[in-house]
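Why do we care about 3D structure at all? Because function follows from shape, and shape follows, mostly, from sequence. That is the central idea of this module. The next example makes it concrete: a single protein chain, its amino acid sequence, and then its structure expressed as tokens.
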Amino acid sequence: MKITDVRTILLTGPMTNDPFLREARKLRSAAFIEIHTDGKEIGLGETYGGYFCPEIVPAVVEFFKPILIGQTVDDIPELWRRMYHCGNFWCRVGLGAIVLNGIEAALWDLKGKLLGQPVHALLGGCKHDRLPCYASGGCSNYPKARLAQKMDHYFSCGFRGLKVGAGSYSAEQGWYIPDNPAEAVDFESDKVAFMRAHGGKDAWLMMDGHMGNSAAATWTLDIALPVMKALEQYNLFFFEEPLHYTDPWGYSELCKGTTVPIAGGECLTAAYEWRVFIEQDSFDIGQPDASFTGGLNEFMVVAKMLADRGHKVATHSNGAGASLMQNLHTGFAAPNTCMLEFLPDYGPLHSLMVDGGVVIKNGYALPPDR
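And the structure:
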């Protein structure tokens, strides 16, 4: 079996079937990469870059394509090394590594199909019988009655945990992000108290600052720390991305200053960039994304780096269907995974590729068998 072609497919479709996420965003894009061979099997991968800049992805794939033509999938890490080195001047981190992730994922998918094994078996074996998972709810839909409906919807979908963003969103008033310490403490503590009362003491509740991606407000340590101190009493599973990714030092200080587990890393690419954050304990829980971090094997490298510092992994998974499966396989292969992210009630860009590979029972995901 030899590789004969590498193709990019760009698609746009409904963001989700989730009525609460759909209030804020109607459509999403995705970039899929196919590895074709002289046999019948086709490897499928996804780069999360397709969510942000899909039109750029095909040119990057074409750059790497000649390295793969005529090769086999016997040694995927070596193929990744050749591509990564070829882009040494521009893809050590960033877009090159992000697109390379989708190519490498397609190679693993192809190898799994050829060997008749789930990819987690090829990455060192499944380390968990089941893993807790949560519904990634995006914005905090307001008013509170709407937020309660959102929570109930996710519980009805089989989830015991959910994550919503800082601030709020309503169709009438748009986005709101508190941008000073007193205002942020009052708003977020009031909201999380309501969520804990509504969800009960056993619900896994998570918050997302989106502070690296917010045009409205970017929190600093002076805002994030008092917010975390106010939320300590509500037993959050984690608070994600309270600070910008240009401040690993602030993240480290925040972790030292609160008992709320601080999570982050979805925007980091390649072990090279992750190392800056890991070596100064910037996250209690790292969130590598197996469609963005640089590759499935690179995900495993990052997971081990986190484990060596005593930290856990909670997968980030906001791509489409192939991205979800890539994170599901790597999550089960990493010994220190503590939580899996799922877009709940997903649409066709997920369901047409997942093809029954996702099984959730009593709030826990089971290892994929394909």
